[in-house]
Design brief:
It catalyses: (S)-malate + NAD(+) = oxaloacetate + NADH + H(+). One of its GO terms (molecular function) is L-malate dehydrogenase (NAD+) activity. The protein is built from ten helices and twelve strands. With 353 residues, it is of the alpha/beta class. The protein starts with 5 loop residues before the first helix and ends with a helix. Bound molecules: nicotinamide-adenine-dinucleotide. The site of nicotinamide-adenine-dinucleotide (NAD) has 34 residues, from α5.
């Protein structure tokens, strides 16, 4: 276990941080003996998979979030090192790293767990090809959440999101702690890609856009609703090309990385944006609406990504899909069966004999 100094060990005792935690120096700032309060002063947030390609930049961004007072980094390898590194960035917030056997301590009583743990795609793979490995990882993390942080918001990044979110829901249900308002599939990368691609097509600053992307998070299940962008004017060819690029933008990165993984930096920005907005809403900021994959009845599948009004209890209002053009409706009709199958695959995984 990483210990940077005797003083640090003393700080561990002073803070009462559970054994197994490896608090880095920044933790001294919450060493008054008080637990970090889940109020305007900040939330306790754990990142599971914190040493990975997404986990490290995501943790860096969360380190700088005004809504995070206590950042817990968990991974089966390397999290104490990442925590020590981040602890040298000036912040009042605490940051600590936890190793393989310390998942319960990492998650103890946190307000939010963000999960980018698992293997990423290689060229030629679909997200569904990751199912066999990532399903078990996500299930075991959900079991730990059920036991150590049953009231936490859970933000799932690990693919295939269309299946891993139902896996989390079923696992929490089995433990009797499932709250559908608190389990989110992070589909924000599809939104920021859409903002970027549409912004350049329409000569609008992408930062001013917030494109509604519904459905799921894999290939054709990703359905951007370009017709709902106020003031935009597209040709039919633009719509077909942009829709395809938003659906398969992840493949561009997988191919360009040539076997070294999938989107990490853009995903970290997307994951931090979603987490930050969720925590802002939880702390009382009103009017926050994000597209996210949640349990709902707005479509023909039990989980669906659409715009969701976030608030202190999580997903407070799931908004309807809204008007679709014939092109969008045809895409919806074509993919909804696939999305339903991928959701069912996650449900069946947890309930297998
Ligand atoms: N939702 C999205 O839009 C989106 C976008 C890109 C990638 N992803 C997914 O995110 C996941 C992570 O991608 P990455 O590029 O960071 O991969 P990576 O291999 O770089 O990192 C994954 C990390 O998870 C850790 N890990 C593995 N098993 C674990 C466990 N049981 N508990 C805790 N940590 C564990 C690994 O040690 C590693 O550090 C992949 O499933 C990928 O497909 C999702």
């Amino acid at each position: 276990m990483f210990r940077s100094s005797v003083a640090l060990t003393a700080a561990v005792r002073a803070t009462g941080v559970a054994s197994g935690a490896v608090p880095a120096a920044g933790v001294a700032s919450i060493s008054s003996g008080k637990r970090a309060a889940s109020t305007a002063s900040g939330f306790k947030v754990a990142v599971a998979g914190a040493s990975g390609g997404i986990g490290q930049p995501l943790s860096l961004l969360l380190r700088n979030s005004q809504y995070v007072s206590d950042l817990r980094l968990y991974d089966i390898v390397g999290a104490p090192g990442v925590a020590a590194d981040l602890s040298h960035i000036p912040s009042k917030a605490g940051v600590s790293g936890y190793g393989k056997d310390d998942v319960e301590a990492a998650f103890a009583d946190v307000d939010c767990v963000v999960v980018p743990a698992g293997v990423p795609r290689k060229p030629g793979m679909t997200r569904d090809d990751l199912f066999n490995t990532n399903a078990s990882i996500v299930q075991s993390l959900a079991e730990a959440i059920a036991s150590a942080a049953p009231n936490a918001f859970v933000c799932i990044i690990s693919n295939p999101v269309n299946s891993t979110v139902p896996i989390v829901a079923e696992t929490l249900k089995k433990a009797g702690v499932y709250d559908p308002k608190k389990v989110f599939g992070v589909t924000t990368l599809d939104v920021i890609r859409a903002n970027q691609f549409v912004g350049h097509n329409q000569n609008i600053d992408p930062k001013e856009l917030d494109v509604t992307v519904v459905g799921g998070h894999a290939g054709t299940t990703i359905l951007p609703l370009l017709s709902q962008i106020e003031g935009a004017k597209f040709t039919d060819d633009d719509i077909a090309a942009l829709t395809h690029r938003i659906q398969f933008g992840g493949d561009e990165v997988v191919q360009a990385k040539d076997g070294a993984g999938s989107a990490t930096l853009s995903m970290a920005v997307a994951g931090a944006r979603f987490t930050d907005r969720l925590l802002a809403a939880a702390s009382g900021v009103s009017g926050i609406r994000e597209c996210t994959f949640v349990e709902s009845n707005v479509a023909d599948t039990p989980f669906f990504s659409s715009r969701v009004q976030l608030g202190p209890s999580g997903a407070e209002v799931v908004e309807p899909i809204g008007p679709m053009t014939a092109f969008e409706q045809a895409n919806y009709d074509e993919m909804i069966g696939t999305l339903g199958d991928q959701i069912q695959k996650g449900v069946d995984f947890v309930n297998r004999a």
